[in-house]
Design goal:
Number of strands: 10
Protein name: DUF1835 domain-containing protein
Structural class: alpha/beta
Strand content: 5-15%
Organism: Planococcus donghaensis MPA1U2
CATH architecture of the largest domain: 3-Layer(aba) Sandwich
Number of domains: 3
Number of helices: 13
Shape: globular
InterPro entries: DUF1835 (IPR014973), DUF3658 (IPR022123)
CATH class of the largest domain: Alpha Beta
Helix content: 40-55%
Strand order of the largest sheet: 2-1-3-4-5
Order of helices and strands: HHHEHEHHEHEHHEHEEHEHHEE
CATH topology of the largest domain: Rossmann fold
Distance between the termini: 65 Å
Pfam family, one: DUF3658
């Protein structure tokens, strides 16, 4: 029972809810279908065994796995998992490396500093941050550490700051492993396969790749083997990144650049000014609308949480006036101060 309690404690909120729904569904089925008390007891024992198996399944790499794939983002991992089917182990890292501190992120102290910054600046759901964020990061790192030496490792990346940083971070975490490793850049692979097709799509993040496209990219064998020399180079680049104190990164000419926190402020202000000119008056504009347009216009990959943080900073600086309560981008509007 003590081991069972420990495994349950490791579950994130969403995992616990999913497991609970499954249990309640089975119990409701028993109420309707069970013809005898002994039958019910048997079914409950089977349910208990299923729950234990569910708790254990993420701890082991199944023997049927042909390779391990690392990718940035749980959504990207979901699409990759569907595309490559069940003979590949997919590990999605649940973070966005473009924003927030990277200082010593490969250590527990660095992860705590990053968490503190997110809590104090980004308008995430507090239940997610408090109950799931740290647990998911910890579980993912444990999965990476548990990769057996017999399996090749495929690292998926793209030409954006998030995934380029993630590539270097992954390789640093894997620095002691002797596995054969390969890198697939989805931006370049997408161009190689689909550049002649119409309409052309400018892929910015692996999260934009459909499952069937992941499968085609992988089976086309567009991955590049990583030499020991290249691995050391990228590991050292991570160490350099992890000593920088900035909170925002972009890609310039395929190079990761640290930029000031206010990098996107002028783009935000210019768009609000543009809308005021279109309307002929300085009406309040829903923050979600402003953020959606900036995400579309920006040549650099950024997420909505960081843009919402910058809009609140512009309010605090007196450049924007606010209407509503800034508990999320859907709950308040802004306009240029008169």
């Amino acid at each position: 029972m003590e081991n069972l309690h420990v495994e349950i404690e490791k579950l994130s909120g969403s995992e616990a809810k999913s497991l609970l729904v499954n249990i309640l569904y089975r119990i409701e089925f028993l109420k309707q279908e069970a013809g005898s008390q002994s039958y019910t007891v048997t079914e409950l024992l089977e349910l208990s065994q299923e729950v234990r198996q569910e708790l254990q399944k993420e701890k082991k790499f199944e023997g049927a796995n042909k390779a391990v794939h690392l990718i940035c983002g749980e959504s990207s991992a979901g699409s990759l998992r569907i595309g490559l089917h069940y003979e590949n182990k997919i590990i999605g890292f649940p973070d966005f490396f473009t924003v927030g501190p990277l200082w010593d992120l490969h250590t527990e102290e660095g992860r705590v500093k990053r968490y503190d910054w997110l809590v104090n600046n980004i308008n995430y759901d507090m239940d997610y941050l408090e109950e799931e964020y740290c647990n998911r990061i910890s579980k993912t790192i444990d999965q990476i550490n548990a990769i057996p030496s017999s399996l090749p490792i495929i690292l998926w990346t793209a030409t954006n700051s998030d995934e380029q940083i993630a590539l270097r971070y992954f390789l640093y975490l894997l620095r002691e492993k002797k596995n054969c490793m390969y890198v697939i850049n989805t931006t370049k692979a997408f161009q190689a396969i689909y550049s002649t097709k119409s309409p052309q799509v400018d892929l910015r993040h692996s999260g934009e790749v459909a499952p069937e496209q992941f499968e085609e990219i992988y089976t086309t064998k567009l991955g590049e083997p990583l030499t020991a020399e290249k691995r050391r180079e990228l590991e050292n680049e991570w160490l350099l990144l992890s000593k920088q104190r900035g909170n925002l990164r972009v890609i310039e000419k395929e190079t990761i650049q640290n930029v000031h926190d206010d990098y996107f402020d002028s783009l935000i202000i210019d768009f609000v000014q543009e809308l005021h000119s279109q309307y002929g008056k300085t009406d309040f504009i829903l923050t979600a609308k402003v953020i959606g347009e900036i995400l579309f216009r920006s040549p650099h990959l950024i997420n909505d949480g960081y843009l919402e943080y910058r809009i609140r900073c512009l309010v605090l600086k007196g450049l924007f006036e606010i209407k509503g309560i800034p508990k999320s981008m859907r709950h308040y509007s802004v306009r240029l101060s008169s």
